[in-house]
Amino acid sequence: MSADPKALYQEVILDHNRKPRNYGELAHPSHHAEGVNPLCGDHIHIALDLKDDTVEHIVFQGESCAICKASASMMTVAVKGRSALEAKTLMHEFVEMATGRLDAKDAPHIGRLAVFSGISALPMRVKCAILPWHTMQAAFNAEPSVSTEAEADPMHAPLGDA
User: Fold this and answer.
1) What is the DSSP code (8-state) at residue 5?
2) What does DSSP say about strands 145-147 and 31-37: parallel, antiparallel, or unpaired?
3) Which residues pair with 63 in a beta bridge?
4) 3-class DSSP string for 18-53
5) Rounded to an integer, what distance in angstroms lies between the CA atom of residue 84 and that of residue 79?
6) Share of the chain above pLDDT 90, in %
7) Which of these CATH numbers, 3.60.9.10, 3.90.1010.10, 3.40.50.720, 3.90.190.20, describes 5-141?
8) pLDDT digits (tens, 9 = 90+) for 44-98
């Protein structure tokens, strides 16, 4: 018997919102970026240390809604210890899944992040869920910031080199 997906989604969001993983500062990150969603008010910073092409440390901080915070928390757990290519591949799969362009069953790396698969049915919340991922992409690309508005909107921008 499987759990109700909506209940699981709510439980995971609440857990990561109350006790975010990898929340804080990184003294001397090799990569960092700021992400802003003016519509919702989300404003986060992602910092990571890439050593020998591996995400050795990754943290986030800022003010954001529960969905954005939970997504950032789960993202940091999912990419920590992975290669940059693996992190970018996961980022691509997550954004495609969250925007409804990829079924979670067809995303081999998504794992527990599949709890966000239903977010595509809530268009106003999709930007909240994908902001941390696009902010991480900006950090990898040495871009200082990313926004969810106008031509910078990650809903419509192509996803890097994943």
Assistant:
1) H
2) parallel
3) 43
4) HCCCCECCCCCCCEEEEEEECCCCEEEEEEEEEECC
5) 8
6) 81
7) 3.90.1010.10
8) 999 999 999 999 999 999 999 999 999 999 999 999 999 999 999 999 999 999 9
How high does pLDDT run on average in the chain? 90
At 101, give phi and psi (nearest 5°): -95, -5
Q: List pLDDT tens digits, range 7-28.
A: 777 898 899 999 999 999 999 9
Count CA atoms closer than 13 A to 138's CA, side-chain side.
25
Phi, then psi, of 19 in degrees rounded to 5: -130, 70
